[in-house]
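fwd from M.: "can u put these together and see what the complex looks like"

so here's what she sent:
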Amino acid sequence: MHYVLKKTGVLLATLLLVSLFAFLAFEIIPGDPTTMLLGSDYTPERAEALRQSLGLDRNVFLRFFDWLCAFLRGDMGTSYSYAMPVREVLRGKIAVTAVLSLMSWVLVVSVSVPLGIALVRYQNKAFGRICNPLNQVIMAIPTFFLGILLTYLFGLVLKLFTPGRFIPFRESVSGCLRYLLFPALAISLPKIAKTARLLRASILGEMKQDYVLTAYSHGNSRWLVIRNHVVRNALLPVVTYLAMSLADIVASSIIVEQVFVVPGLGRLLVASISNRDYPVALSIVVMIASVVVVMNYLADILTQAIDPRVRLS
Amino acid sequence: MINTKDKSFRIGAGITGFMLLVILLGLLWTPYDPNAMHAAEKMASPSLRHLFGTDNFGRDIFSRVVQGSGATFLIALCSVGLGLLFGLLIGGLTGYYGGWVDEVLMRLNDSITAFPSLLLALVLIAVFHSGKYNIILALGIIFIPSFARIVRMEVAKQRTLDYVQNARLMGVKDMRILFVHIMPNILPVLLSAVAIGFNNAVLAEASMSYLGLGVQPPDPSLGRMLSEAQSYLLRAPWYALSVGGAIVLLVLGFGLLSEGLGGESHA
């Protein structure tokens, strides 16, 4: 309990620091937002008046505090390029990215664990000999190139989906999920390769322990030893890794959304940085960063919940 | 310390060596001028005349991939160099002297490295704006914490060893001990970190340029070419394949090299 409290304290401090850093980063950007907002109507007097009405003449930390309070209430400011509240701009996009990330994560969890065990079980069979080098290659393919390969194969050759034509939830839930399956594959394939390799290494490491010898001496076959004794222990580091990888997946969705033209947070973030729409960019960065911090926190808590050794040390 | 018989090391060194050779050769000679357009040969499929075919302007893709690999490699080289330089300084000093500065910097370090580097790169590019030199600066800054952490850990380990104590007793100055006596001993670990640094740098440069936030036209880059190639995926799939293949070879080579040098790959 003490551990959880301490971690929660650290979590809150990190969240505060992260949002302060993001705020300051977008604050030191060269150029004055008033120049852009006023455009051709620019005069020094108008700029001064606008600066006062936006509160830009006040201390930066006071402004951070105001911004944070407003952000927590759900008021994220006004987008420069859409001239409407950031909240309206983000509406619907969060759900798309959340569904895409969750789908990828479910794929990673459900495929990598059986695959990792199979890699050890059939280590010296053809399966192991093909899968191990294949894993290495898949891990080296950047997600965006993998996305392009999948677009070509499933979209243009097999025509299982129309690249670039995203189907919104409202039109058809199954159509939407079907379209999102391909970006989810692009995100999860390298992660599956990596997690399976990690599990394989963990099992092989665990096989050197004394209790494995004992299990063999009871007459168990290699597979039975792995299934009944080793897997449970070997999964520990993998569970932590899987919990933490959800944050990574959210980050890779930024780029995969661009490849498959999925209207989610990532695509909006890239567009808002290109258009210098900083209120939108700042809100998305803080949101994604908070997800990352919270996921890492949950991974820590989960690890100590399932592994008493962490609690003691 | 380096096990040259290691399979990962050998394959990685082979791939990286091959790519470097092609890049070096490309500085002196490419089959065609990478920017010369031939209206008569638009979207030609791969042949003996054009090894990887031609693009929508009739430019030779092989020449362009060689040039783009060189540009991407150069950016990786500069940003890893930048990260390594400051990482060595910060990590070396904090690891050698310790104290509260060390404590604070390492806490800060931990929280930065927990973040996906793509998100950090996006924030830094929002601050600096896109462009060749800004992407080098942004990636360099992102690499400092991981290099600093590795250097700090190794220096802190070496500091307690007898040879350092002896040098100190003989009156050798701290800076000389740190950079002349300790540094050569942490070289093997550093090499592995540099290899994984290159792996990450190539990936990050290609990602950012693919998103349109990295290298801007007319500067060449593999990432930018890949986003162009995506528009012609149906009519010229070889374009995307050869550009992507070059990225994969660079990433795979450095990744295997790092693994062979005894590091863990965390791309």
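replying to her w this: Chain A has a mean pLDDT of 83.
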